[in-house]
Write a structure and sequence with these properties.
The chain is of the alpha/beta class and about 180 residues long. Helices cover about 35% and strands about 20% of the residues. α3 packs parallel to α4. The protein is globular and about 40 Å long.
């Protein structure tokens, strides 16, 4: 099975350089994707280098040399300016995901959390007729915001929750609880 992973997959250099990159996310994602590869699945990652916005970070985010060597990764580079970064990431993720997935060969796409750029990629993936699986890892008790999450993820073909609380409370179907401990 060929899978597209849309989410964080930084290497140690990126984790040392950037205050915006999450070591926990990189470690967890690397473990999951490594297990999928060990089970015989081909994994292609779509990611960008997480940086603080300009002026605390560079004006343009370049991805080269910041991803794990363990996985084939397609990097998204974008403007890193406040007010423009989110729009540019959404536009570029949609375009790159569409190009990758519509070229054929992918069996499913998994998105790591519901960022606006991951939702843009998910829309492109489904537009190519490939199933989208929402992997929700970073989830604490959001109270009333669970409804907002469920609304944003409602078009996914499947849902994976690391949080048992979110798995129990979410009305989304089909769903799976994945114990990350």
């Amino acid at each position: 099975m060929k899978l597209l992973w849309v989410g964080t997959i930084h290497n140690n250099l990126a984790l040392l350089e950037s205050l915006a990159a999450s070591p926990a996310a990189a470690k967890w994602s690397g473990g999951l994707l490594g297990a999928l590869q060990a089970a015989g699945h081909e994994v292609v990652c779509l990611s960008h280098y997480h940086l603080r916005a300009w002026p605390r970070g560079p004006v343009f985010s370049r991805h080269k040399g910041r991803t794990s060597d363990a996985f084939k990764t397609v990097g998204v580079e974008a403007w890193n300016l406040p007010g423009l970064r989110g729009y540019d990431l959404r536009r570029r993720y949609h375009r790159v995901a569409s190009r990758l997935v519509c070229s054929g060969g992918f069996d499913a796409a998994l998105t790591y959390n519901l960022t606006t750029w991951n939702l843009a990629a998910a829309s492109a993936v489904q537009g190519c007729g490939v199933p989208w699986i929402n992997v929700m890892l970073d989830f604490e008790n959001p109270g009333e915001n669970l409804e907002a999450h469920d609304k944003a993820a409602r078009n996914a073909d499947g849902h994976v929750f690391l949080s048992h609380w979110a798995y129990e409370k979410s009305k989304l179907r089909p769903k799976l609880h994945l114990d990350g401990g």
